[in-house]
Amino acid sequence: MSGFDETDIFILKILQRDASLSAQEIAAQVNLSTTPCWRRMNRMEQTGIIRSKVALLDADKLGMQMVTFVSISLTRNDEDSLEAFEEQVRQFPEIVACYTVTGTMDYFLKIITRDIQHFENFLRRHLARLPLIRDLHSNVAVTQIKYTTELPLDTQL
Fold it and tell me: Which fold, 66-140?
């Protein structure tokens, strides 16, 4: 993380925990005056280090209690097929994360739904109908042990 000092890292750590804090509140925590702190935050937004500021929602309280991880292998791995599949995946709000992976499968999806019936409906009516899928394997999450959106910034210094 070239071009960053410990104060920048401290600001990012604070923002990862609570992006609703004002520049004044953050400045007090990092021992800066408000204007220099705001400038640092603004620079990190302008350069894309801070992509956005969002509200993290509680899926359980919203009735979305089913987390399923799905591994997918495609029938073809040419660039056009990969791009077509990736564009199709972006259309489904139930798919909250999609990664290309190494190994025997091509993609790994994280899908959040209300319950098993909603997942089965999504699988049958949408995901399983995508023409490029050869194999699809799903694993239902039972217990969430750890979940964070915070990046491990201390390990980057």
Answer: Alpha-Beta Plaits (3.30.70)
What's the pTM value of the predicted model, to 2 decimals? Answer: 0.88
Domain boundaries, the chain: 6-46, 66-140
- List the one residue out of 155, 151, 156, 157 whose CA is nearest residue 14: 151
pLDDT digit string (tens) for 66-118? 999 999 999 999 999 999 999 999 999 999 999 999 999 999 999 999 999 99
The number of residues in the chain equals 157
- pLDDT tens-digit map of 10-68: 999 999 999 999 999 999 999 999 999 999 999 999 999 999 999 999 999 999 999 99
- 6-46: CATH architecture: Orthogonal Bundle (1.10)
CB-CB contact of 70 with 127 (8 Å): yes
Q: For every residue of 80-93, which 3-state class applies, written as one string?
A: HHHHHHHHHHCCCC
